[in-house]
Each structure stands twice: as structure tokens, then as C-alpha cells.
Predict the 3D structure of the following.
Amino acid sequence: YSHSPAFRGYMATGVENTAGRPDLREQLEIGPEEPPPLPGAPPYLRLRGPNQWPAQFSELRVAFDLYADHMLKLSRELTSAMAMALCLPEDGLAGLFEQPHWQAKLCCYQASSRGKLGCGEHTDSGFLTLLLQEHTAGLQVWSGGTWHDPD
């Protein structure tokens, strides 16, 4: 991660922070494989670039590429459903995502004592967030002025 201007690769617990507090998670951050932006490119393009895959898990890249393909397909289907829910044509939002930029974080949160968050309050960037939460609850959604556990 420290060698990637695109913020890609492995991050140990506490490397990333949210609202000034270290996150209690380790993670691997991945995005689409792209060349780094050219000098003088707009600052937001610095999130594009090559990934850094851990050498000790050679099978991870193949498995993750398959997973990413499925998530991109699901994202397109959900975006079409949202367009139709807004009384737009099925492809009514597609023009906004002709070249979608995505990022993924494979996270492992540490068990924490009550009152300590694995990751503080934040808003995900982008249009759509897809999350696979395993057996341990923890994620909450802010809606209507209060926090809710997702169903």
C-alpha cells in the first residue's frame, strides 16, 4: 500500500484511519487493473492504477477477478432496477457509468471492546456499495436520524 500512489495493496491494522482514529482492521484494497495516470492528470485519477497482489496467495487474483466480474454484473442489474424505479428506461442511468470505476476492500476487522469501532462513521464514495457481511454483526446504516442494523 505504501508503494502505490493509487492506494492499492495490503494495509495492516491501524494504517488507515477514519475521522482521525485508526481503523481496527487489516485489508487488501483492489481496483480495476489500469495503467497509472499520466503526469498532469486530474487528481481524482490517482485512484487508478495497477494492483499489488500478495505473492504468497497466487490464487487470490484469479478468484477475485471472477468475483469482481460477478459484482460488476450485479451492479449493472441494480442500476437498471433503480432506473426503472425512478420511471426511467431500463438503461436510463447507463450513460453515467460507461467506464465505471470501482474499488474493493477485503477487510478483516479485529474483535474490539464495547465502544470501539472497527471503522468509524463514514460515507462510502461512489454510487453504489455492495457489502458481504459475514456472521459477526457490526455494520449499521444511518437513516432517519438514528443507526439501524441491516436486515
Remarks:
- The first helix runs from residue 58 to 85.
- The two ends are 33 Å apart (CA to CA).
- The mean pLDDT is 86.
